[in-house]
Structure formats: C-alpha cells, structure tokens
Design a protein that fits this description.
By secondary structure, the protein is an alpha+beta fold. It has one domain.
C-alpha cells in the first residue's frame, strides 16, 4: 500500500483483497469428475472409460492414494463385467391354539447380495487426483482410452493365435511324451 494513503483507503484496499481471497476460496472445491462418477464418456472426440475411486479416513497418505486408485480401476472393470447373485428368503407363520383367542405370528426376512467383478484390463491409468481436506477423503480418476483398449485386445488376439499355433505344432510331440511317462509308471 502507498504510505500516503489515508486509513480509510488502506481499509478499503484490505477489504477488497479479503473479499477477492474469499471469493477464490469459495470457487474451489472438488473437480467435476468427483460428482460425475464412473462410466463411459465421449469427451473432445476421445471415447474412454472412467472410474472414480475414493477412500476416507485412512491416515497413511500413500496407502490412501493406492486404495483410491485401485478402487478407480475396479470401477472401470465393473463397466465390463459384473456378476450379481441375489437371494431373498421370506418366512411368515400365523398359529392359533386352543380356544382360538390366542394368535401367535412370526416373520423372518433375509436378503443376501453378492457382487463379483473380475477383469484383466491393460492401459488403465490414473489421470487426476483430489483430496478433500475437510473430510479426509482421497479421490482418484482413472481412464481407459477406447482406442488403446482396442489395440490391446488386438495384441491379445495375436498372442492367443501364437499360443494356439504353438500348441498345435507341439501337441503330437507332447502327447507322445505323456504316453512314455505313463508307460514308465505302469511298468514299475
């Protein structure tokens, strides 16, 4: 501040600075992807699968980041394959005894849900991180680019073809070797 300014000018300048600082702080907050969540999105001509993972209350920061990243990867995997088993058992009974004035009823309802996801995904990368200091929640955004996924699948097909060709070429030799081992075992 200019030393020749009066006290009211200094106060006004400080007030404006404080208001600007508060305004910038209020504009902060979590990135949009925290609330948008996981799924398949087409953004800027780039189709990709996104997963948002989070963990709250973990004091070990490296462990918290790793956990949030693994959960983000799991969110992407759930996009591709999820098996859900659901079981509900419902039991109800009403019993009247003796003079029909006493009635006993009982009910029991049980529900069990099991969800399993297994997938091998190549090319999933964490692309952003955010920590909410108020709630001690760590968030990680992971991305699987559709084009990279297609390339990885194509490479896997080629690898599977190579494995298939190897097995075909060596099947007779391996079968003969197995027969020899079995013969040795029987002749003991």
């Amino acid at each position: 501040m200019n030393p020749t300014q009066g006290p009211s000018m200094k106060l006004a300048g400080m007030t404006v600075a404080v208001l600007l600082l508060l305004g910038l702080t209020a504009c902060g907050g979590p990135p949009k992807w925290v609330h948008k969540g996981s799924g398949a999105f087409n953004e800027k001509d780039s189709k990709a699968f996104y997963g948002v993972g989070s963990v709250v209350g973990v004091r070990n920061e490296p462990l918290a980041w790793d956990t949030a990243e693994n959960r983000a990867r799991a969110e992407i995997a759930k996009t591709f394959e999820t098996y859900t088993g659901y079981l509900m058992r419902d039991y109800a009974a009403s019993t009247t005894a003796g003079d029909f004035t006493r009635n006993t009823e009982e009910q029991n309802v049980e529900r069990a849900i099991k969800t399993v996801t297994t997938a091998t995904l190549s090319g999933v990368r964490p692309v952003d991180r955010y920590k909410d200091d108020k709630t001690n929640t760590y968030y990680v955004l992971a991305k699987l680019n559709l084009e990279e996924m297609k390339n990885n699948l194509e490479q896997a097909k080629e690898l599977n073809a190579q494995v298939r060709d190897f097995v075909r070429k060596n099947a007779d030799r391996l079968f003969e070797r197995l027969e020899k081992e079995e013969d040795k075992r029987l002749n003991r």
